[in-house]
Amino acid sequence: RFSPSLRNGLEENYCRNPDRDERGPWCYTTDPAVRHQSCGIKKCEDTVCVLCNGEDYRGLVDHTESGQECQRWDQQHPHKHPYHPHKYPEKDLDDNYCRNPDSSVGPWCYTMNPAREREYCHLHKCTTEAEKRLSDTTTSCFKHKGEGYRGKVNVTVSGIPCQRWDAQTPHQHHFRPEAYECKDLRENYCRNPDGSEAPWCFTSLPSMRVTFCFQIKRCTDDVEVEDPDCYHGNGKLYRGKIRKTRKGITCQKWSARSPHVPQISPDMFPTLHLEENYCRNPDNDSHGPWCYTMDPSTQFDYCAIKPCGGCPHPPRAYR
């Protein structure tokens, strides 16, 4: 019934599924008594399990749980969306594979059905033991972005009590503890379930939705130079991609106006390579590259970059 063509992939004697058999790829056999047989190839969703909520899933499943074909991430039809692969390189938005770029309950995709914007994908969760081995938890300080922080700080940096995660007032949200079991959304403790810059919480004030818990200390062994690059002189010509300060705080984008209104921006100085939130030295600071920070209480800080073959001068305390 099926003959090879340039498009149907019926090469050699490889297992294929030209008639969309529910059992998967098959082939005609060389046994005269057995006309055809399934090849027993595992489904993609059965070969890789999903840890936690699947933010790190990089498998090849490209259909939703209801069987809808996924839309390619680099296309805007039939559904327009903000998740352009070049804007989110760390999310690995390849082809039309299921991914979780927005910290949803699990991997999902936009569908090729104009009437159905997006759906979750059918993937198996890993065992609790596997998730425990993966986690790097701390209680008295936080590492990296604080996804593993499990301490009991439950107020904002200004002392405002946090809203309980299992409550929907004063702020409604989708971070329900039962849907994010591995994120430990207990009580009203500061947590980082969505990969933000640091642990945070919804606040108990109706006028303030969320805020970071920057009063939690960063673990001292976590602040280190992230790149073998160094800078020459005062770093005026540094064009690397370090984007954290010496205290481990993530840099604010130069084009952003929150949490700090910058005095130096790409619009004002288009030739200074103020790209993304990379460390730069646009004002010839003698102490090296710096950036505005994502910490509302720290306007700017110098970056975790070593000078080439020398020690930096002691930093200024203000900008």
TrEMBL record:
Location within or outside the cell: Secreted
Entries under InterPro entries matching the protein: Kringle, Kringle-like, Kringle_CS, Kringle_sf, Serine_protease_kringle
Signal peptide coordinates: none
Domain of life (superkingdom): Eukaryota
GO cellular component: extracellular space
Cysteines joined through disulfide linkages: 49-126, 70-109, 98-121, 162-201, 190-213
Protein name as it appears in the record: Macrophage stimulating 1
Lineage: Eukaryota, Metazoa, Chordata, Craniata, Vertebrata
